[in-house]
Amino acid sequence: MNPSSSSSAALTPATLSTEERAHWQLAWVATVDHKRIGILYLLFTLFFFAVGGLEALFIRLQLAVPNNMLVSPDTFNALFTMHGTTMIFLVAMPAVFGFANYFIPLMIGARDMAFPRLNAFGVWLIPFGGALLHFSLFTGVPKVGWFGYAPLSESPYSSSLGVDYWIIALLVLGIGSVATGINLIATIFCLRAPGMTLQRLPLFVWIMLIAAFLVILALPVLNAGLVMLLMDRQLGTHFFMAGGGGSPVLWQHLFWSFGHPEVYILALPAFGIISEVIPVFSRKPIFGYEFVAVSGVAIGFLSFGVWAHHMFTIGMGRAADLFFVIASMLIAVPTGVKVFNWSTTMVRGRIRMTVPMMYAVAFLIQFTIGGLSGVTHGSAALDWQTKNSYFLVAHFHYVIVGGVLFALLAALHYWFPKISGRMLSERLGRWTFWCMTLGFNATFLIQHMLGFAGMPRRVYTYPDFENWGWMNFLSTAGACLMGVAAVLLLVNILRSLSRGMPAGPNPWRAWTLEWATPSPPPAHNFEALPPIHSRRPLWDLANPDRPDPVVGPDAISTPDRAKTSLWILIASEAAFFGALLLVFVYFNIRPQPGPSSKTSLHLVPTLIFSVCLFASSFTLWRAEVAERCGRHRGVARWLGLTVLLGAIFIVGQGFEYWGLYRSGVTVGTNVFAASFFLLTGFHGFHVTAGLIALGIVLGLGLAGDYRNRPSPLVAVGLYWHFVDIVWVFVLSIAYLLPRLP
Amino acid sequence: MSGSSGSIFDPASPEAQAITHLFVITLWICAAIFAVVAGLVGYCLARYRQREEADDPAQTAGNKRLEVVWTVVPFCIVLVLFGLTAQAMEKSDPAPEPGEPDLVITGHQWWWEIRSPKLGYVAANEFHIPVGERLSIRLDSTDVLHEFWVPRLTRKMTAVPHAGNHVWLRADKPGVYQGVCSEFCGTQHAWMRLIVVAEPREKFDAWVRTQQQPAAVVTSGDAARGRDLFRELTCVNCHAIQGVGGKSNAGPDLTHLAGRQMLGAGVVPNTPENLRRWLTDPQQIKPGALMPNFNLSPSRRDQLLAYFSTLQ
User: Fold this and answer.
1) What phi, psi does A104 have (nearest 5°)?
2) In the prediction, which pLDDT does B312 show?
């Protein structure tokens, strides 16, 4: 059951120091080293991949023949819910984070991630979240699908605690992902080696940077939606219940505002991997580096404007439908640019068909199919037929399995020698590849046809219509072949750990920095870095007679770690509060029955404690000035005043809540009350967190802790100012705007 | 059960035809793009594959003109597809007209209720339409989201509680058209199927007349005892039989039960034997359905069965 023990034992000699060997379990649990954390991520991934894969097998076995009764309907519904949730949140994302963790610091010539302890926090949230999700086994597994559409996911229709565990697990995993996203961005911005300018970053790093931005901006929106769903289920609000003034459609907006960027959170890293693998095995640099990078940025931006193409059948109206049609179709353009660049990289190359390259080529073909069938979902008219059919199931599995999983397998085979110091067996790898590719295409190609024939997704069984039986049977046979491939993969990994050929530092003759150090790399990563003047420092080293062109000047600017990460955190929090503010506007733009902002909120007391909060920004600024001038007493005085003003705000808000409670306005009263408490409650929670942070800085400052080292006041101050600015928006939207005539 | 499910490439209405037309064009465009990519990859693998170690080739790193080409060309294709999509949307889903709809179709966990406000009949899971006439349909739901989908006839559309979404429904050829709920709606989502029978006007009118009739009158024998049982047991809490009893629409209206092809929204054909099994224990046939096993004695069950067989 413990996936880390067996493999880590095999990894022991190479990665652990002599002292650590005696306590190797502890060394793995307590590690803050980015390489070990990366390995932990990948081990958790493998474990949950087995779980999600078995769930998929049972889904396919149940569907092998019409009118089958192998598993009960509820079991089937639980299986596909857990399969989707597991594969997205416990397999695909951790796998991406695992490779990013291990290789980004190496590829940019850094010693570790920007925040090693935050990194360890992120990785341990994966098993914690996974355990929470599976704890639902004891209380009733969620049976609502991985996108948990309301009102089916609301307590009247899903009364067991399964959905609650599902929500809490996703919140835990979401918070961990945001932490990891911030860490990745800060690492890439702040820890690059001399000469590693942004223009010279390996494409994997470039594209992971974009994906990390999507993580920090998209996950908070999901978190907002999940909290609202949890409030509906546990506190009696009606955010997503049509009966109580809520809206089931709003859940879909929130979910897919996260859900579609999420597709690119998974696809972009795959693009990054392919952009590393194809050039190395074609023995040529990537074709059109700038275009691959810039098209990634374009995809990142567009991905936030296409979510509602998941909602073409919800009745949004023609204008909205058309907007999301063109936005969704446009995203095909930068994606197509990438596909052409990868294909053209191979032209006039010397292609070596190693196992990683085989996976990369299969990715190219399969991802193109998935991308093209994606266009048929972006076109609303076609989506009106194909949505929620097996055509859709085929489409997204071509993207996420044929695309993302194949890219991850390419990465695994490409980087395994670096991680373990040993080569995987090419022969076994080829067998695995063919089983996987044949199995995958047998499973999913035929599902396009099933969709055309009108088979809806998420049915536990189906009538014996003409052709449906054999098509489903073929699909099941393909899934079994994929299962064989997964076993072969595991055998290959375990075999290689003990008996694989030693890899040496650079078995593929690749060009990025991770190959400039022994395999596995020492704890400190590099003895000495090669000079970096181009995008392929190791090419320059190996070919002094024909080096790559020097790209831009060598000078790099690496911003301050604390400030950078705070700015990224603020961006993420802004997305969260943006979602909450929009929710408030959505529910209060039309008058609701029952209490409203006008009837229940008192402006004058609120304005008084608001002024205190705004004043606290000023006093904090004075504290920052005092610190810059080195006046320690002034810092303490101004900081104390800030804490006092913030506390007045919190107390004021407490009185406001008390008054509302006494007049009978509670969170379950109506959607105004629910959205008001949601918005101001989360703001108050952030103010409290800021107060605690300021209090700690104040206390440590008084104890003289910052005499010899810089205080985190600037970073904490940024956060405090941000929380104050959020209140400007809350005050305007919740208190002032509704009072306008 | 067998027979054809029907395919979206065999449309039977102008609304579905518009989508199929666009689909065929889109598939050809996609096939062409795929052929270019697969051809390029295949060519490279055949031409540039290196089996022995060799020196690295010339290190070309890009070509701006090519990049512009493969940005602009797909962009133009996207614009064309967008135009065609907008056109097809207009054809397959014209704006609803004001006034009462011809049919109100309501999704329940896990069956469909079909009500005609104009003609005043209620049906469940199966209904007839006149060939060649365009019906306006309002979708509703009493519980969770459901989705109305008859692939050969019209677009799919979600039934959102209180939202009143609209679709047009028409069939140009007589026939039996399969439909299904396509939005996951809980335990028995799989068996929430729908049958649309398109027939010439006269036959349709005859069907409507039957549907408008209250239940057939029975006076004696098992059937009459069955009718009394229907009224006396808890059946009427969920089911209605026009002219006999029950007002609830929690379960399907049974006034014309015997005239239906299927039981349990598609799970088994409507034969006396299957109806007997259903009454014995619905959970054996459709596990999770909201109708519990009432543990009817065999004699009561057979009396109900005798009555239900009269409900043509």
Assistant:
1) -65, -50
2) 87
Contact B78/A329, CB-based, under 8 Å?
yes
Residue B210 lies in a domain: no
Report residues of chain B scoring pLDDT below 70.
Answer: 1-2
A118 CB burial (10 A radius; 0-12, 13-18, 19+): middle
| Chain A residues 632-691 with CB within 8 Å of chain B | none
Q: Touching check for A347 and chain B: CB below 8 Å?
A: yes
Neighbours of A458 (CB within 10 A): 19
Confidence tier at A6 by pLDDT (50, 70, 90):
very low
Give the tens place of pLDDT for each residue, A303-319. 999 999 999 999 999 99
Query: Is A590 within the bounds of a domain?
Result: no
Q: Which residues pair with B121 in a beta bridge?
A: B116
Q: Quick check: B260 and B122 in contact, CB under 8 A? A: no
Residues A519 and A621 in one domain: no
Question: Is A301 inside a domain boundary?
Answer: yes
A333 burial (CB, 10 Å; 0-12 / 13-18 / 19+) is buried
Q: How many CB atoms lie within 10 A of CB A60?
A: 20
Q: What is the DSSP letter of B190?
A: G
CB pair distance less than 8 Å for B190 and A462: yes
CATH number at residue A305: 1.20.210.10
Q: How do residues A371-395 score in pLDDT, each as one tens digit?
A: 999 999 999 999 999 999 999 999 9
- Beta bridge pairs of residue A296: none
Other CB atoms within 10 Å distance of the CB of residue A62:
22
Phi, psi of B268 (to 5 degrees): -145, 155
Q: Three-state DSSP class for B115?
A: strand
Q: Beta partners for B128?
A: B197
Host domain of residue A640: 597-739
ipTM associated with this complex: 0.96
In a domain, B303, yes or no: yes
